[in-house]
Amino acid sequence: MHTHRHRPHINLRLERWHRRAIYVSLAALLLSGATWLLARYFLRPMTEYGEMVHPLEPLAMKLHGGAAMIVLFFLGSLMNAHIRRAIKAGRNLVTGWSMIALMVTLIASGFGLYYLAGDGDRVIWSIVHWTIGLAGAGLFVLHVVLGRRSVT
């Protein structure tokens, strides 16, 4: 005779301060990256000496690096408070594992841009990084929406 094991409900909802800190730090990361993209590809002034760097580019890059450090801190804070328990509960695993894969790829490509990319391959590293970063915003929203639906 088979007995059905019922999994106990595991609360995966973060405390309000934690959730808001993650939302704000991810928004800062997205906005600083998008600002860099706009400045780099659409706002560069053309002068008699050729195309010049827009003043927002270095500022946006510095803000993006700072926001990345804060996001990494909060990503670490999610390991026990959210990720480990979600895996144990078997909830929202497709978008959760997708978020983990996306963040690992962003961390690796960000590291590559900072430490490994040369003049010849920097554009490729950059395109990979910002394409995945922009897609990540949509995946994050999907993860939150599906996670909230799985509770009700």
TrEMBL record:
Keywords: Membrane, Transmembrane, Transmembrane helix. The chain crosses the membrane at residues 21-43, 63-81, 93-117, 123-146. This is DUF4405 domain-containing protein.
